[in-house]
Specification:
With 739 residues, this protein is an alpha/beta fold. The protein is built from 26 helices and 28 strands. The longest helix has 18 residues, at 425-442. The protein starts with 5 loop residues before the first strand and ends with a strand.
């Protein structure tokens, strides 16, 4: 993919995301954010300065859901795609359970970028989970990172704790403290935080320790004006209404009239997810306690999409059950409609228009409301609103002047505001007209997309993002590795270093000459700091990749960006403290210096003796420890997670960065190199190797060089003709990057 204009990658990972027939309200994860990102992507794709927009979300292949969510790529239009990335399996899971799998999402996105050779101008994360993914990609590729929170963990925790929630239970179910910790890190690194209202900045972000670090920008979202046309439009004023729209209206009228004794009354409408913070209870209570309001109006609550309340998640089940109990308590039968589903594409716009035609009011009594897109939809159709005085509705009503703000905890204030609009025709008409006119003035997707595209352009200029990065420039490590065709990965001690300095200088010169095609990495038993120090002391070109701690850690580039995906992969079933405790039984093991110990590596001194390794294996296995033993130089014993080693780290890098193993050349000299020397990579054993590698002389793809140290590495490169099939004679080679 190579198009003129900005390439923008957006991320919205959780929920059920597709471009048409969105299942809004299916659960707490499939709400306004899904609609927002789809509408934003469509609007950006119509902007002349934007070449391509990709919205990354999670791939779901689950018999309980539509096959739409299992399509790797969904083309919305010629400039907008949905890209579905797998992580955490394929079953649908709620957002709070996705945290352990986000590094997998990062890795698979890196793989997608490598495959398509297209690096975006910016990454834009929506909500904390996608913010984490975008933040990590920003670090790897050196590109600007924009964040939109939609809702924030601190305000949610504060609200729930005030309602009596148990903090331990909150962390077990919602992972709330982990979410807050991630949001703090996001604020440390985000180049721009885009909000919908000023209130988000002043009240929701302010409690964060790092709230003062990013630059904020208020860009109100838009609505699809063509869908939410005024209620008084009919075919005499333009295009005839579509069959779908007319059918949707007829279906809704039939459904609503099924509930109401007197359907002609004005309708008080609420449309939301069954979530406590939406305060359905507050509206039903306000309606139920006010007999005058019941006399003049009907109440319709569309609380998401449901089949069987008993099968809903705990939070939704509690909200819906409470709604039914209140309906019964106030005997609202014949006065209150509680339909079980609604079609967003066609029915929701008609629903607003039906309420407006009947002279009704739309109510959003949420306890907290970051923005309130439904208020704009209602306003655009000419339906006056009563809204919570929290958050986004303040800005909306200040601009649109189309309703009344109320305290969501004051049920009498809610019913009083509704009646005030319903019984005063002049006020109703003023609010209706203001809503129609001002939504079209302040809240269009065209203006939102234009402002956002300008933000992207400015951020791109600030970061000096260049389309062509020459090999002698310090390109971000992700940009560099994405364009590499070959990789040399070598052990340090007694392989790269040792003997005369001449061969080392020759190798360093070779690496610099072929830098456009050949990446350089080291795989060492040393810990990271020690590896960096010794390479610097010998004036070795900073590696693109450092595999340290015998394969327990991976870092990239001069900035030593950690590969958190590798850490997440090897951490499974690793119990460091249990292994330490178990091995205290052996007096022939002595812990090495604390400086060489790492979270995923334990290092011991052990002199060779018959059956010692077997005894260690036996004891750890009997205690159900998951581990890998690596013994080298007849004195060093390293214990790693079962998934960690130099060889596995190299295979992981090959998979993540789409560099075939056959295009990787590895070199080593001792037992802790053995696994990486096996298999598909081209392998070189330098002539000063340790006895542990003697058995590998018969192995395929392993060349035993006659030269020692760096000289042996160069000999191996020549032996394999490692770069012979590449055009390495370009006079001005460049890394071609689409941005």
């Amino acid at each position: 993919m190579k198009k003129n204009g900005l390439y923008i990658q957006m991320f919205s990972i959780h929920g059920l995301v597709r471009s048409e027939n969105m299942e809004l309200g299916y659960d707490a994860d499939t709400g306004g954010q899904v609609k927002y990102v789809i509408e934003l992507g469509k609007a950006l794709s119509q902007n002349k300065n934007v070449g391509q927009v990709d919205l990354f979300t999670r791939l779901i292949s689950d018999k309980s859901f539509s096959e739409d969510y299992s399509q790797p790529i969904e083309t919305v239009n010629d400039k907008f795609r949905l890209v579905r990335i797998q992580c955490g399996g394929k079953k649908y899971i709620r957002k709070e359970l996705l945290w352990p799998y986000l590094d997998e999402f990062v890795n698979n996105t890196v793989k997608f970028i490598r495959q398509h050779r297209s690096i975006p101008a910016i990454v834009h994360g929506h909500y904390a989970d996608a913010g984490y993914v975008a933040m990590e990609l920003s670090r790897v590729f050196g590109i600007p990172f924009v964040f939109t929170g939609h809702s924030l963990g601190r305000s949610k925790k504060e609200r729930l704790m005030a309602q009596g929630a148990d903090e331990i239970k909150l962390n077990r179910q919602l992972k709330i403290d982990h979410r807050i910790q991630i949001e703090e890190k996001i604020l440390q690194t985000a180049n721009r935080v885009v909000t919908s209202t000023k209130q988000e900045i002043e009240e929701q972000y302010k409690p964060y320790h790092n709230s003062g670090q990013p630059e904020y920008q208020v860009i109100p979202p838009g609505i699809g004006i063509d869908k939410f046309e005024p209620f008084y439009y009919d075919q005499s004023q333009g295009e005839p209404r579509s069959e779908e729209a007319m059918f949707a209206k007829a279906s809704l009228l039939k459904e609503l009239d099924r509930f109401f004794q007197n359907p002609a009354k004005p309708m008080v409408l609420m449309l939301c997810r069954p979530d406590k913070r939406k305060n359905i209870q507050g509206l039903v209570q306000a309606f139920g306690e006010d007999h005058d309001l019941q006399a003049i109006a009907n109440l319709a609550v569309f609380a998401g999409i449901r089949k069987d309340i008993s099968e809903e998640e705990e939070g939704a089940r509690e909200v819906l059950t409470r709604m039914l109990l209140l309906m019964d308590k106030y005997n609202l039968y014949g006065k209150m409609a509680i339909p079980k589903k609604h079609d967003f594409e066609n029915e929701v716009p008609e629903l607003y228009r039906i309420a407006a035609e009947r002279g009704g009011v739309f109510v959003n009594p949420a306890l907290t409301e970051p923005f309130g897109i439904t208020l704009l939809e209602a306003a655009a159709t000419g339906l006056p609103v009563v809204a919570t005085n929290d958050g986004g509705p303040r800005d909306i009503l200040e601009n649109c002047k189309n309703g009344i703000l109320v305290d969501p905890g004051d049920t009498k204030a809610i019913s009083r505001a509704i009646k005030d609009i319903l019984v005063h025709d002049t006020k109703w008409e003023m609010y209706s007209k203001n809503g129609i006119m001002n939504t079209r003035k302040y809240y269009t997707w065209d203006s939102h997309a234009r402002n956002f595209a300008e933000t992207v352009e400015n951020l791109k200029k600030q970061h000096n993002t260049s389309i062509n990065v020459k090999p002698d420039q310090a390109a971000p490590v992700g940009v560099r590795i994405t364009n590499l065709e070959r990789m040399l990965i070598t052990d340090i001690d007694n392989t790269l270093l040792g003997g005369d300095e001449g061969p080392v200088r020759h190798l360093v010169s070779y690496l610099k000459k072929h830098r456009a095609h050949l990446g350089f990495g080291v795989a060492t038993g040393r810990v990271l700091q020690s590896a960096v120090k010794v390479l610097k002391e010998h004036n070795i070109t900073p590696p693109d990749i450092i595999i340290s701690g015998v394969g327990s850690e991976i870092h990239y580039g001069p900035d030593l960006v950690p590969d958190k995906g590798w850490e997440a992969l090897i951490s499974k079933n690793w119990n460091r403290e249990k292994i330490i405790s178990t091995l205290k039984a052996f007096d022939f093991l002595t812990m090495q210096d604390e400086k060489v110990q790492r979270p995923y590596k334990l290092s011991y001194h052990m002199k060779p003796q018959k059956d010692r390794l077997a005894k260690i294996h036996n004891l750890l296995t009997r205690n159900r420890c998951h581990y890998k033993l690596i013994y080298s130089h007849e004195k060093y014993l390293d214990i790693l997670p079962s998934r960690a080693s130099k060889g596995k780290a190299i295979r992981y890098i090959s998979s993540k960065w789409e560099i075939p193993l056959k295009n990787i050349l590895v070199s080593g000299d001792s037992g802790n190199d053995e696994e990486m020397l096996k298999g598909k990579p081209k392998a070189v054993v330098v002539s000063n190797y340790s006895p542990e590698l003697e058995s590998m002389k018969s192995a395929r793809n392993v060349y035993f060089a006659e030269g020692e140290f760096a000289k042996g590495i160069m000999e191996g490169i020549r032996h394999y003709g490692f770069l012979d099939d590449l055009d390495t004679q370009k006079s001005d080679p460049e890394l071609q990057i689409t941005v």
